[in-house]
Amino acid sequence: MGLVSSASITLSDRDNIRIKGLLKALDEVGDSSHIRKFRGKSCAVDASCWLHRGAIGCCFDLVMGKPTVKYLDYCKRMIHMLSFFDIKMIIVFDGSSLPLKAEEHSRRRKTREDSTNLAKKYLKQGRTDEAYNMLKR
Hints:
Elements: H1 2-6, E1 8-11, E2 17-20, H2 22-29, E3 42-46, H3 47-56, H4 59-63, H5 71-84, E4 88-92, H6 102-124, H7 128-135
Parallel strand pairs: 3-4
Antiparallel strand pairs: 1-2
């Protein structure tokens, strides 16, 4: 009930769907638990989230065009952990691009390009901490 009353879905004039207040609403109804509590259950996993999280660990290699598969290590660790606790995974990969999200994808692509370019500049200047902060966005 709290989730419905505190989160609202809005449509802009561009049909860009946003759920304002969703994370806060989920935080209010969520509960911290040890993963063993979910033994024998199933869960859906957004593969893109795991891949993105894994990419943070090798962001310098990726930006510099150095061949790497280190981003898969995070995914493997998560799969191992869930398997260890006998949790069945349904790993979901993005399908086709949705026309409703085209503007958002374009905005994100531009942000990534800008962040990558700034990070490369910082790396050339020896400012690795700032470069890393730009790359993990």
